[in-house]
Specification:
- Helix content is 41%, strand content 16%.
- By secondary structure, the chain is of the alpha/beta class.
- It folds into two domains: 3-177 and 220-243, NAD(P)-binding Rossmann-like Domain (Rossmann fold, 3-Layer(aba) Sandwich), CATH 3.40.50.720; 179-216 and 247-282 and 301-316, Alpha-Beta Complex (UDP-galactose 4-epimerase, domain 1), CATH 3.90.25.
- The protein has a seven-stranded parallel sheet, sandwiched between helices. It has a two-stranded parallel ribbon with strand order 7-10. Strands 8-13 form a two-stranded parallel ribbon.
Length: 317
Amino acid sequence: MSKVLITGITGFAGSHLAEYLLKEGHEVYGIARWRSKTENIDHILSRIHLLNADIRDGYSLQWVFKRVKPNYCFHLAAQSFVLESWNSPLETLTTNIIGTTNLLETARLANNGCVVVIAGSSEEYGLVYPNEVPIRETNPLRPMSPYGVSKVASENLGIIYWRSYGLKVIVTRAFNHTGPRRGEVFVTSSFAKQIAEVEAGKKEPVIHVGNLGAERDWTDVRDMVRAYWLAAQMGVPGEVYNICSEKTVRVGDMLNILLELSNTKVSIEQDPSRMRPSDVPVLWGDCSKFKELTGWEPEIPFEQTLEDLLAYWRERV
């Protein structure tokens, strides 16, 4: 049994990772700010150790590391909504870059051999040309949002700490992932919640959308967190690994799948507030490096993921 620390444990991926690690028999610790909502982990709260800390406060992280002495740390805490990074760029850069620096410095000072997995993002690739897909880890990084910039900086910091101090840092670049408990500001969850509200008679039969033409590579979050654990176990420090399904689905086609799972008739209206100043047209990943290392394969079909997500919102509206 290992001691595992998760930053962002109250979030979407963090809560699923905690569930998975508990099933695998590990001792799970997580940090949360005092005002954080715990609804994603309420069902496992009695089985984990939740500690009050903030990644923007290095001293609170040092206190956590001294108390826990983790074998593994998964750094998932971040301002992760791309559109919000345009609305609050300074907040995004401060949370994601300074927060990562505090964590790395804390792990360095603890000097207990802890493996740190930094959750990067496919948004780091940004502007990808047609001849560059599917995207490999060696592709140039041309981020097109403050969020993407913050994640490039975070992973570069992690690699610097490996090269300079020998800190065991592994970077995963996760492509889009979704499933139950996905925040409603993210496109799959936004559509699913709107459909559930229409079904329940709580909303007019109109689905408000942003850019339906973008193509994304989606993986079920439950497959994603399994990959995170494999990365921690088998990944090479200082290396970067794409994690993805190696398939793309247009946002508009994703919406059509959700609508086929519902018996409601709706109209579609574009909402200017949901459009980004610049958007990445295609994110289609190549996961061969990670698959060859670990044998990982996604197991949950995308249609099942969307069905589970819709069921999640039906229960809540």
